[in-house]
Design a protein that fits this description.
This protein has 466 residues and is of the alpha/beta class. It has one domain: Amidase signature (AS) enzymes. The protein contains 15 helices and 11 strands. Strands 1-3-2-4-6-5-10-11-9-7-8 form an 11-stranded mixed β-sheet, sandwiched between helices. The radius of gyration is 21 Å and the shape is globular. It binds glutamine (GLN).
């Protein structure tokens, strides 16, 4: 099949289904077909191409794309066309992957359901009355509904993995620093990571290798090249051989608060891994009980600083005050009042509060200490086991509207995914079961920092045995 045919098939399916699913905020048919035509032309001439050339891809709308709108699902950036490409975008363009469009998310990636998008909720293709997870619900739904073979997401507290679990897709957060953040609109810079959203583990590995590796434009980028995850997956696939692997079941993430159907699916997969030869150990990470609280202090603190740049002058929306003098401060206030949604305002207020003089040590300081404890828990258990596993989420996808007015219930979605962000370790979600009422659930695998290959190995085994 030619790249033009493949790209056109995606565009046709998007045209047919996106009005219902709302996974895409922008579709770039012209740009994608131009890229595809170029790949086909080079192929016809026998020119050397990247092995992934010609396969269309979607990009979460908080990753900048030159000349193509990047809104972060916020009114404050409505219509903004970035003047440059993110490093990951540059890499996929260089490899010849046509970018078909930009996908929906919770505003500025704050949320767990994509309901906080200023441009409407994305629906879960498995059950359109349910949310697809968030913040990367658009990328996950697009892949799940076969609108596109794969997509890019960003994960600050679970925004690739949780939507992966809710839509039956594979979602990966690579080791912090493994993929350049240059051109990712910053939410919480010490937690953010870009990663793949795909339909299987092998695709995720191929995509991670393509986008990963050192980038001088990101000061937190690791100096080394992308780890060889594709070869690990190729060697593992189909073997169903888990011998020699030590797998830790995290006690704190596989009991209380997790729904029976999620736990049952999880235990079945753990049993299957044991049968495949893995040594299963129960491990305890007591600090994980405080991860959620620490995250919801650190994350808003960093977000409030990062979002200060949206001042009505530098990017996108500008709203002048309706009365009184037009000063910089008043333009900023009017723009932010009109441009930001409720959840974003909630977090900016939280973040500026925890950073304020007098509260800094009590909140932000304590949260940083918890972060250190979490890192130590990880270090200790990774002395005993190769990977940690848990359900990705406490429940299956919930109905649209169920948690929108209850921030705490919404935040509780992230209990299992957040520790990996706080510690910078790689983590992924791979689908491992479908509930009786036909909804997917996900299995999380976490490895020590820079050990992405062993995480992929276990994920491939899970894919094969479930
Ligand atoms: N649900 C989490 C939050 O709202 C995760 C967000 C993310 O990973 N971008 O903060």
């Amino acid at each position: 099949i030619s790249s033009v045919d493949l790209t056109q098939a995606c565009l046709d399916r998007i045209a047919a289904l996106n009005p219902r699913i709302n996974a895409f905020l922008a579709v770039d048919a012209k740009g994608a077909l131009e890229q595809a035509t170029e790949v086909d032309r080079k192929r016809a001439l026998g020119e050397k191409l990247h092995p992934l050339a010609g396969i269309p891809i979607a990009v979460k709308d908080n990753i900048v794309t030159r000349g193509l709108t990047t809104t972060c699902s916020s009114k404050i950036l409505d219509g903004w066309k970035p003047p440059y490409d993110a490093t990951v975008v540059e890499r996929i363009k260089e490899a010849g992957l046509p970018i078909v469009g930009k996908t929906n998310l919770d505003e500025f990636a704050m949320g767990s359901s994509t309901e906080f998008s200023a441009f409407g909720v994305t629906r879960n293709p498995w059950d359109e009355s349910r949310i697809p997870g968030g913040s990367g619900g658009g990328s996950a739904a697009a892949v799940s509904a076969f609108l596109v073979p794969w997509a890019l997401g960003s994960d600050t507290g679970g925004s690739i993995r949780q939507p992966g679990a809710f839509t039956g897709t594979v979602g990966v957060k690579p080791t912090y620093g493994g993929v350049s953040r240059y051109g990712l609109v910053a939410l919480a810079s010490s937690l953010d990571q870009i990663g793949p959203v795909t339909r299987n583990v092998a695709d995720a590995a191929a995509l991670q290798e393509l986008i990963g590796g050192h980038d001088p434009l990101d000061s937190t980028s690791l100096p080394e090249p992308a780890p060889p995850v594709s070869s690990t997956v190729a060697q593992t696939r189909g073997t169903r051989d888990a011998s020699g692997l030590k797998i830790g079941v995290v006690k704190e993430l596989s009991g209380e608060g997790y729904s029976p159907e999620v736990l049952e699916a999880f235990n079945r997969t753990v049993d299957a891994l044991r049968e495949a030869g893995a040594e299963i150990k129960e491990v305890s990470c007591p600090s994980f009980d405080y991860a959620l609280a620490a995250y919801y202090l650190i994350m808003p603190a960093e977000a409030s600083s990062n979002l200060a740049r949206f001042d009505g002058m530098r990017y996108g929306l500008r709203v002048d005050p309706t009365e009184g003098p037009v000063t910089a401060e008043r333009v900023m206030a009017a723009t932010r009042e009109a441009g930001f949604g409720d959840e974003v305002k909630r977090r900016i207020i939280l973040g500026t509060h925890v950073l304020s003089a007098g509260y800094y040590d009590a909140y932000y300081g304590s949260a940083q200490k918890v972060r250190t404890l979490i890192q130590r828990d990880f270090e200790r258990v990774f002395g005993e086991v190769d990977v940690l596993v848990s359900p990705t989420t406490p429940t299956k996808a919930f109905p649209i509207g169920e948690r929108i007015d209850d921030p705490l219930a919404m935040y509780l979605n992230d209990t299992a995914t957040i520790p990996a962000n706080l510690a910078g370790t790689p983590a992924l979600s791979v689908p491992n079961a479908v509930t009786e009422d036909g909804l997917p659930v996900g299995f999380q695998v976490v490895a020590a920092a820079k050990n992405d290959p062993v995480m992929y190995k276990v994920a491939q085994l899970v894919e094969d045995v479930s």
